[in-house]
From TrEMBL:
The keyword Transmembrane applies. InterPro entries: UCP019883. Keywords: Membrane, Transmembrane, Transmembrane helix. The chain crosses the membrane at residues 42-61, 73-96. This is DUF2818 domain-containing protein.
């Protein structure tokens, strides 16, 4: 896989992972919970875990392409901010739009 394709795959994985907590009532989209609705804290916890999973996939692609570059705190601050921005459509759909029940 080319480096350009790897970048697009990681961005697509990050987009799906960032919106997953807001689009369903299951833990990580697979595990049913005993409560009817997930709380916002659980959704944010999922968001953090999925951020590290998406980052791990990016790290695997980087390792496969060659040398892994050392990153400082700035890199993680920017990628976490990007991940939160990617989660905005799911957050908007879940909390800011009116749904008929």
């Amino acid at each position: 896989m080319s480096q350009t394709a790897s970048v697009w795959v990681v961005l697509l994985v990050a987009l799906v992972a960032a919106n997953l907590p807001f689009l369903n009532e299951r833990l990580f989209g697979a595990v049913p919970l005993s409560t009817a609705h997930k709380s916002l804290a659980i959704r944010f916890g999922e968001l953090v875990v999925l951020y590290f999973i998406a980052g791990g996939i990016g790290l695997l692609f980087e390792r496969r392409a060659g040398q892994i570059s050392a990153q400082g705190w700035e890199f993680y601050a920017v990628t976490a901010s990007l991940f939160v921005v990617l989660a905005f459509p799911g957050f908007t759909w879940r909390y800011l739009m009116k749904h008929r029940h």
